[in-house]
Amino acid sequence: SSNEHKLNFKKSKEACLSYIQDALLQKQWKRAAEFLTCYVESLEKDYSREHIGPSEMIWRIGTEILWHHSHSSMKEFSYFMEQMKTLGVKRYLKVCLEHVFHLLCNGQIDEAYQNLSLAESWRFGEQTAIQGKEMKLIQAYRGLLDYYSWSKQKNILLEHGEDGFSDLAVEQEMHGYFRKAAVNLKEIIKIPGVWDVFVKCYVDLLEFYGDHNEARQVLNEYAYNSRFPANPNAHVYLYQFLKRQGESKKSLISALKILHDIVPSHELMIDFNTMLQKSKKRKKRRLGLEVIFAALDYAGWKENAKAWSCLARQVKQIVTSEKHLDWIKQEWNSRKDWWPAFHFSRYLAKRNWQENKSLSYEKALVAGILLGKDCKYFKHVSQQGCKAQLKRFRMLKKFVNRHNPVYLRISG
């Protein structure tokens, strides 16, 4: 019967998709391609209307297979993409963007630019207005490639020095790329979203031509506008710009404070801690201790010698002056149950000593103050240092022994 035929067809189609999925998961690209061919042929008899249309299935699966298949070429991939563009008007610009990404990954810059230009001139009734966001992306990526061309011309002219800048034709060409890039990049970063690469390129253009006020405004908007999603990189770019402009420590600290709140493990926390430690304000020095303790809570910082040096220096200053021991105590109270195993085990003491003696020195000082002179980490490192007749380790041992009462006060 007709209903039975439809039911069997549906089952066979679902089974085919299941086989394709299995082949993709096992990275069997040839097998997946064979099943996809069967799937495409079977669709000629399929008149159902699913939420995700067959053309999108073919586009997504086919793209994945062609990208990984050992016998596929960029020529075949481009031919497939051109076919996909004609299958679904609603997805035309998305397919164009994906095609461009693959061209860029293969170093075909000119072909990518040509495809973007063609996509930008595409018009199809109401669909043009509906796909406004995709069109903005098309224009933005074209702006990015204009920036790339501008950057190449700029480097050529700078290498040639004054003689290079006397070539008006080349200079005018560079300015032409600047104007085209600036227009499209400026438009995309007005839309709330994460536009890191576009923002960086636009700011680079503005800075080169001395428009620092506009660059500052763009970065402030990107970092502080509540309509944009929280983005650590936005604050990194603002901080780097302020640093290039020679802004005050107050401005730099303000930018890094927000970055610390979002990503306490960011690599710039070393810079942040250093600035805070040098401050004359007690509140900022207290924050500096909090910042470096927080950074060392993360596994990626376990063997960061600079971070341990920052903590050791500040702990040593506090212990020597015997002022603000409560700062250390407050930070240590929430960590004393897990930091000893995380940072100060005997195994780590042996490994750190073998791999990086400077790191082991800084960690041993901190361990000795926080856990006392009987701490496994401190005992092993100080013993090895004394055996090796290294003066700094003998002084380390004396310092910790002399200030052992501090450990008792910190531990409560």
From TrEMBL:
Q: What's one GO-annotated cellular component?
A: RNA polymerase I transcription regulator complex
Q: Which InterPro entries does the entry mention?
A: SL1/TIF-IB_Component (IPR052669), TAF1A (IPR039495)
Example GO BP: transcription by RNA polymerase I
Q: Pfam families per the record?
A: TAF1_subA
UniProt-recorded name of the protein = TAF1A polymerase
